[in-house]
Design a protein that fits this description.
Layout: E1 6-9, E2 13-14, H1 21-35, E3 45-47, H2 49-78
Antiparallel strand pairs: 1-2, 1-3
The protein binds zinc ion.
Length: about 80
């Protein structure tokens, strides 16, 4: 799934958007090395509103579909 992905550091703010998650992670690693001695700053996160919305709803649908399939499978065995 395409971005934009942003790396957010509570102390230094939010990065520019990156199309690929990998690029945002690479930026984060460089940022940690340069400003935080290679450590993860408290409260850091990756911001991707598009991914959060679609990703969560997609995951929920997948779980519901999985539960339905399992119910059908076990239901038919019981009968
Ligand atoms: Zn920082």
């Amino acid at each position: 799934m395409l971005g934009p992905y942003r790396y957010h550091c509570p102390q230094h703010g939010t990065s520019d958007p990156y199309t690929f998650k990998r690029a945002a992670h690479d930026f984060a690693e460089e940022h940690r090395d340069e400003f935080h001695g290679g450590m993860h700053p408290p409260g850091e996160c990756f911001v991707s509103p598009e991914f959060d919305i679609r990703g969560n709803s997609g995951a929920s649908s997948a779980v519901i579909a999985f539960v339905l399939v399992m119910l059908l499978a076990f239901g038919s065995r019981l009968i």
